[in-house]
Amino acid sequence: MSEITTPEGANSQLGQCLKAARQARGLTLKQVAERTGMALSTLSKVENGLMSLTYDKLVQLTSGLKMEIAELFNPAVAAPAPGRPVTARRSISRVGQGQVITTKFYTYTYQCTDLIGKRMVPIVADVRARSLEEFGPLLRHGGEEYFLVTSGRVAVHTEFYAPEILGVGDGIYLDSTMGHAYLNAGEATSATGVCLCTSEAPDLYDQLRQIASREVAPLGGDELPP
């Protein structure tokens, strides 16, 4: 399929969102063209509201920029934030709600997934693995994170430090690029905690989901595919 040329102004929102998303990432149109494989002239027409894009081109564009398609149609998400303007975004997570990834040794429930482009990803973690052999390779991803134990005892293993045991109410803040793992160190079948991951990367949620999905064992319900 090809792009569809439309009257001037008809696609102004798409153009404005593309420009805002590009500027928020500090990219020129030429750099966007290089990353996406799209023609510079096409991108220029889109930004100026002179051209629309078919779905396959939207996928090509957003994949190259590592962003979600919805960002191109939501000015509040795509707009850069000089002076940190109020966006009035809000999301409530109810008990039992969230997108779930379950494996034999842990369950991650991602909260507030209706918000796109989050710079912070909240996760409720149910930890069952008791050894690194069970858990698998240490996790690594961009940004930083904070883990707060809400039940049981959790052993925190990191790449450069000796393991630490955390009890209910204890928390740890760490560099997420450092290898790390949370293990069950209590007598109960599992330990639970709340993990807040943050990064400047706009695709942090996708990164985390791909990492967590490495050994998915689907159990039905809201579990995510790998």
TrEMBL record:
GO CC, one annotated term: cytosol
Alphabetized UniProt keyword annotations: DNA-binding
GO molecular function: DNA binding; DNA-binding transcription factor activity
Pfam families (alphabetical): Cupin_2, HTH_3
Domain HTH cro/C1-type: 18-72
Keyword DNA-binding: yes
Record's protein name: Transcriptional regulator
